[in-house]
Amino acid sequence: MLYGVKWGLFSIGLFICLGLLLVAGCNIWINQQTKNRIYSDVEHIQPKKVALVLGANKYVAGGRINLFFRFRMEAAAKLYHAHKVQHILVSGDNGTRAYNEPIAMQKYLIDLGVPAEAITLDYAGFRTLDSVVRAYKVFQQNDFIIVSQAFHNKRALFIADHYHIQAIGFNAQDVVRSRSFKTRVREYFAKVKAVLDLYILGTQPKFLGDPVTLPV
After folding, report:
1. At the topology level of CATH, where does 2-201 sit?
2. Tens digit of each residue's pLDDT (9 = 90 or more) over 151-160
């Protein structure tokens, strides 16, 4: 009986250790592979024709503006006004009539002075993988700037690498840790999911569809 309990505890401990090693290994792999292609200074980033802005909900609980959303829109507008990009592709979730990230992104960018004709909406960016792959396969872009927070850009660039997309990342302002703890913890596991999606599961975007030509 005692032997069985000890073996059970050992098995649980071994499983936890292997899980932690998997999480650490995937995060180190992604961070190291992409760290030299992420920029925070608009003056130093190489100009591209298109920026892909990764979606987020505009609001958080209590009706406050989601700072991840706000800072991504501000970063994209900064690229446009600095003439680092000619066109902005906003990609987000439009899973229901009441939830439409791309429209909210477009409106915010227009308020920041980006003309409507310089913005294209991707309504099927349900996940980071979908947004990156659709930018390549649907919107026919193979050389663009990805806009999000630094930790998210690393995962997006890792996905782009797998599809031989020549992408670089522009970091939106980060959100203080006290207001982003859950997101940061979730990102550790999201990086594991990215590795599994690309190398084990072969996960594809939920929707693709006919090619769309951007006006660039």
Report:
1. Rossmann fold (3.40.50)
2. 999 999 999 9
